[in-house]
Design goal:
The protein is α/β, with parallel strands linked by helices. The chain has 12 helices and 15 strands. The chain is globular.
Length: 357
């Protein structure tokens, strides 16, 4: 690991509050203005959803609807928001796969902007639960998008992932198919569908650093899949700030975006830098165990596919992802996906998903 790489990782960890001082120092530099607008966030109790809600609460808005099906995380989020008792914030326990509930919520609140963060995100777990991944990541996204159109929602912001690029995993495939569905809807409706595609969120629930921290506390080796494995990283404060910029701006030329995340980082370099920045951890007591890539995992992730290109925007850290030769996405016929059942094996479901890529 060269000095430049080490400094980049150190800065990323410091911005995320993952060093010994425990305080995130990322300077947002942007406060959202959604005056007179009602905002709905799905998956609101998750890492991205909750951070979006906190940043929105610091700006201006008419009403904020926070929706999640996880009761305990929603309860803790609600307790955090007690400091904003003067704001119009609604906490709703519901499931985005429930058509009747979603229709009622949209008809009652008439959201102007939807941030759709609800998804199954863990790659190996979705390899063994493909039916659930299809239901939530694809069919629920299509359901919400259709309801948003019917209720004249102005903007629908979809949180995607770099794992949707040349996907080999169930999770990545389901996200790429949802991107395609929303791209097609953009050409047919007044609702503007905006897709944000980015890498691993540092310090998020179930991510690497919390896992490393737990393994260190237990005196166990740090488990890494492969010494060469690398990923793109971004801290959640920055990611959410950029998502809000995308939702706030009115003059986009294209509808799919990625962020400037710098170079891909080797996981082993991330781990070593993290350890070096902790005052209470001795590097001499740390060992690594390389366990091999798990089902659905790549050695390296990508930002764009061969049929895509990057293009600058008016914001330095936000880039367009555009199709080469202005190729438009073909309509997605969901009949095969809707016929998938929990009795089918992973390989069968994967074969069906590949037809949509």
């Amino acid at each position: 690991m060269n000095k430049s790489t080490s400094e980049s990782i150190k800065r990323l960890l410091e911005e995320s509050g993952l060093t010994s001082n425990k305080k995130a120092i990322y300077n947002q530099g942007f406060k959202s203005d959604f005056t007179n607008q009602t905002i709905l966030i799905t998956g609101a109790a998750g890492s991205i959803g909750s951070e979006l809600s906190k940043q929105i609460a610091k700006g201006t808005f008419k009403s904020l609807i926070l929706l999640d099906n996880a009761e305990s995380p929603m309860y803790f989020l609600q307790k955090e928001f007690e400091q904003f008792s003067n704001l119009n914030i609604n906490f709703i326990i519901s499931d985005v796969r429930d058509a009747l509930s979603m229709k009622e919520i949209f008809e009652s609140f008439k959201p102007d902007i939807v941030f759709h963060t609800a998804a199954y995100k863990h790659v190996p777990l979705m390899e063994s639960n493909p039916y659930e991944a299809v239901k939530l990541n694809i069919l629920a996204t299509k359901l919400l998008a259709d309801i948003a159109v019917l209720n004249q929602t102005k903007k629908f912001v979809f949180i995607s992932t770099d794992k949707a690029v040349n996907p080999i995993s169930i999770m990545g495939m389901t996200k790429r198919i949802s991107e395609r569905i929303l791209e097609d809807l953009n050409y047919k409706n007044s609702t503007k569908f905006l897709i944000t595609r980015f890498g691993n969120v540092l310090g998020s629930n179930g991510s690497l650093i919390p896992l490393f921290k737990k393994q260190i506390e237990l005196g166990k080796p740090l488990t890494i899949t492969d010494p060469k494995v690398s990923r793109y990283f971004i801290n959640k404060e920055k990611a959410c700030n950029l998502i809000l910029k995308i939702a706030s701006y009115e003059h986009w030329e294209h509808n799919m975006f990625t962020f400037n995340m710098g170079e891909a980082i080797k996981i082993v370099d991330l781990a070593k830098t993290y350890i070096a920045l902790q005052n209470d951890i001795s590097e001499d007591n740390i060992s690594f165990e390389f366990i091999g890539l798990r089902p659905g995992e790549k050695l390296h992730e990508e930002i764009i596919s061969k049929s895509e290109a990057l293009k600058s925007t008016v914001f330095d850290d936000i880039l367009y992802v555009i199709q080469k030769n202005n190729k438009k996405s073909n309509p997605v016929d969901l009949k095969l996906l809707e016929s998938i059942s929990p009795y089918q094996k992973t390989n069968e479901i994967k074969s069906i998903l590949k037809n949509y890529l």
